Amino acid sequence: xxxxxxxxxxxxxxxxxxxxxxxxxxxxxxxxxxxxxxxxxxxxxxxxxxxxxxxxxxxxxxxxxxxxxxxxxxxxxxxxxxxxxxxxxxxxxxxxxxxxxxxxxxxxxxxxxxxxxxxxxxxxxxxxxxxxxxxxxxxxxxxxxxxxxxxxxxxxxxxxxxxxxxxxxxxxxxxxxxxxxxxxxxxxxxxxxxxxxxxxxxxxxxxxxxxxxxxxxxxxxxxxxxxxxxxxxxxxxxxxxxxxxxxxxxxxxxxxxxxxxxxxxxxxxxxxxxxxxxxxxxxxxxxxxxxxxxxxxxxxxxxxxxxxxxxxxxxxxxxxxxxxxxxxxxxxxxxxxxxxxxxxxxxxxxxxxxxxxxxxxxxxxxxxxxxxxxxxxxxxxxxxxxxxxxxxxxxxxxxxxxxxxxxxxxxxxxxxxxxxxxxxxxxxxxxxxxxxxxxxxxxxxxxxxxxxxxxxxxxxxxxxxxxxx
Length: 469
Prior knowledge:
By secondary structure, this protein is mainly alpha-helical.
């Protein structure tokens, strides 16, 4: 909390650290500063998600660019940013009280440049060894790690009554970075005028002539924005004095609600991030060129085994899921402030059970005809979008619950911790699908959601619940 007695308007004396800060006091709360912090940090968080999920837009196309990689290698590579993000979030979660908002946001945004630059260089020629691509995938996780620092630090600037909206806006708009990079990549790589550095590549597709592309654009275009974000953060942000060293921040683990909320956030953001990273690969391996019962061979020599079936272009669909999930987080955040978070977490859990069960019926494609394949693909796509919708609702509601359940300093730590664990979603989803198969892994998802529904009802939502939120 504040280290001194509150003074007017946060004592804006021009230094980095505010001398006092109490957003619950309307007389001393500097509302313009809080909203400026939200918008600048959200801009940087969006770029962080771009860096984190840039591999998800590139990895499904690596073999078409000439890399010789197996389906298992691609799944592991797509899972690596999630593993890294979870590990990095364990570090970033303790940084807000130590570094302050200004230094943390500015320096983190600068770090995003390294992996982004690396991908831009390595897509130009299929010569990078597998270990180097895995290293770039790991470094992309810094973008995911930022979330556990940015969100708690922003929560320090807003009163509790507004934290559902503020955090929902920041997280939801930040999550749009996933859709942004996946949506724009196919358009950016087609623009030769953007290719200031490097030459063109030939992109192969099943049964089609190779296409000339400039894949480095998918990475390089974001670097100037990252530099601008770092400058904005350094020059325009301030820091709230919160007294908590690393050891003091670990007292959240003695509170049982830390563990219950971790389970709930795994259900929501773990699902969102896991599916966002693996959606394209899963679609390709079930209904596209990765299914040997549909397409045999690779590149221009590939042959379609199901007459009349039009193989879906992954890049035309992959951005839709993250877009729906991020949009739901933004739109439902004000409703959580009005109605409470727990009720919407219940809605999220029930919706996830129904939508996962529906999608499971499309995880074993019927390749007997083009009509059955197309019907299965339609069911798969709508089922996945429903999963993204309900995970986005839960992302908003759980972030409303945490500031209501915990006092301010602990709430920031719990937000960082739960986000860190849920960030392993892409890793566990990739490993789970590879190890158990999609059908069995989705069944595990239903079991997890049912457990979370029970926890939410008993602990947070029922009449007389111990922690009504």
